[in-house]
Every structure is written in structure tokens, then in C-alpha cells.
UniProtKB/TrEMBL annotation:
Pathway of action: Purine metabolism; purine nucleoside salvage
Enzyme class: transferase
Name by which UniProt lists this protein: Purine nucleoside phosphorylase
Family: Belongs to the PNP/MTAP phosphorylase family.
């Protein structure tokens, strides 16, 4: 397939700028991008300079790939990701995952800001993804639709264990050393956005077992699992979204919550990566 050649071309362009071979791939979501500043000996490559990469169009998403080390572990970091609501296809959104895998990354850590649908969740909590519901995927926007390239993975990949049990255990252990950090564990449901949900939609999401709702992450996880990467997912709960609250959510509020939680979020991710040494 054409796509494999495109991925290989992007990989070559990146390898022309650094010899670093990443072990871990990290995607930083809305307002969480500043962990990138903590990379050691980082090479930063704007998405515009990588063949076949799309551009990030959302405020709060920088749009560059960084390769460097964090806690001594070689990592590749996406500072800013692509979303379906920007108008990109599922294939375009997940192209960077294929590239990071072929660069050598075996573990994917995905982060996002999400609405807390579970009434027990509070703004500022962090949720470990234990499973997901991929509503756009079930409705036809699955990135694996189309001819399957066996060089990437199998035609019908299982997703029963999408979120790695051992990595979650590591995350729980690291979180214990941060007393002001409430670590939840639950189900992330992806919607396309860009509008936030109606109250009725939020009550529907609750009914089907959603703990947190957001507009990203799941396409990347599906493609990472297609390529047999081990996945850890972390949602920052940026607002309550039970369907019963009075206040309306807005993008500024989401970014503010991400800002406020940034130090503990950063510490958690750093701690997890340190334990991978
Ligand atoms: Cl309430 N909904 C969605 N879809 N995404 C979000 C969110 C809500 N809060 C943060 N991200």
C-alpha cells in the first residue's frame, strides 16, 4: 500500500535530523504540551517539515515532534495532535503513530483533557484509561478501514486488552507518591466534537458506561494496538460533564484546568517514564 511508503518517507526525514531511537512515544493533549520543554537534548521538528504530516490547527496545540530523553529514556513526543473535528481523516490523524512505531517506539502514552461523566469525578482528577468506547469508529470512522497492510499488523486485531495492565499498575504506584493527586480508573468514550454534548447526550454516555468523554485519543490507540504497541492512557478531568450541571463547558475552562493540573500531570508522566528505565 501507498501508506507504508509514506510512513517510511517520514521516518527517513526524521532520522536525517537525529540518531535518537525512541522507546516510548508520548502524545501531549490540550494544554499539556509543556512536558516537551523538559526533554533533554531535544530535536524539535515542526509537523510542516515532516512529509505527509497534517498541521495542528487548534489553539493550545503546538504542532511539532520532539525527540530526546526524559528520565534517561529515549522518547518521541507529539506536542499537539490531530482531531477528526479538524476535518482530517482517521488515517491522517493516526499517521504519526505509524511513524513513531517505525522509529522504534514500543510503548505509547496518550494524554488528553476530558469531561468527567462519572459523578464521582472532580475537576483536576486524573483518569487512567482502563477501556474505551469508540463511537466514531463504531459509526464508520475507524482508521483501520480499508486494505490491510500486513507489515503494520493483522486484519482483525483484538482490542480486548487495549490498555496495558502492567503500565496501569506502574501508574498507580507512581501516583501514590503524590498525595494531592486523585487517580481514577475508567472508561473513555470518544465523540467527534467539535461541539460539546447536550445534557441528553451526556446522560446517554453515562448510561452506556462512560466515565470520561473527549474528542481524541482512541483512533491513535487503535492504530498503536494494530502495531502491537503497549498503551497507557491518561485523561485530565477538566470539567464536570454529567448532564446535570448548571454551567456550560467551554474551551477556555478546559485549558485552564489543564494549566492548573499541569505540575502533577507532568510529575506523574515523568515518574511513569522513570519506572520504565
Ligand atoms: Cl464535556 N466533552 C467532550 N467531548 N470533550 C471534552 C469535554 C467534554 N471536556 C473536555 N474535553
Amino acid at each position: 500500500m501507498m501508506q507504508y511508503e509514506n510512513v517510511a518517507e517520514a521516518v527517513r526525514a526524521i532520522q536525517a535530523r537525529t540518531t535518537l531511537k525512541p522507546r516510548v512515544a508520548l502524545i501531549l493533549g490540550s494544554g499539556l504540551g509543556d512536558l516537551a520543554a523538559e526533554l533533554v537534548d531535544a530535536t524539535a521538528i515542526p509537523y510542516a517539515e515532516i512529509p505527509h504530516f497534517a498541521r495542528s490547527t487548534v489553539i493550545g496545540h503546538a504542532g511539532r515532534l520532539l525527540l530526546g530523553t526524559l528520565e534517561g529514556v529515549p522518547v518521541v513526543v507529539m506536542q499537539g495532535r490531530f482531531h477528526l473535528y479538524e476535518g482530517y481523516s482517521p488515517e491522517v490523524i493516526t499517521f504519526p503513530i505509524r511513524v513513531m512505531r517505525l522509529l522504534g517506539a514500543e510503548i505509547l502514552i496518550v494524554t488528553n483533557a476530558a469531561g468527567g461523566v462519572n459523578p464521582a469525578y472532580a475537576t483536576g482528577d486524573i483518569m487512567l484509561l482502563k477501556d474505551h468506547i469508540f463511537l466514531p469508529g463504531m459509526a464508520g470512522l475507524n482508521p483501520l478501514i480499508g486494505p490491510n497492510d500486513e507489515r503494520f499488523g493483522e486484519r482483525f486485531p483484538p482490542l480486548a486488552h487495549a490498555y496495558d495492565v502492567e503500565l496501569r499498575e506502574v501508574a498507580r504506584t507512581v501516583a501514590q507518591s503524590w498525595p494531592d493527586l486523585t487517580l481514577q480508573e475508567g472508561i473513555y468514550t470518544m465523540v467527534t466534537g467539535p461541539n460539546y454534548e447536550t445534557s441528553a447526550e451526556l446522560r446517554f454516555l453515562r448510561t452506556i458506561g462512560t466515565d470520561a468523554v473527549g474528542m481524541s485519543t482512541v483512533p491513535e490507540v487503535v492504530v498503536a494496538r494494530h502495531m502491537r504497541m503497549r498503551v497507557l492512557g491518561l485523561s485530565l478531568i477538566s470539567n464536570e460533564a454529567t448532564g446535570d450541571e448548571e454551567a456550560e463547558v467551554n474551551h477556555e475552562e478546559v485549558l485552564e484546568a489543564a494549566n492548573a493540573a499541569r505540575p502533577k500531570f507532568t510529575a506523574l508522566v515523568r515518574g511513569i517514564i522513570r519506572s520504565l528505565q
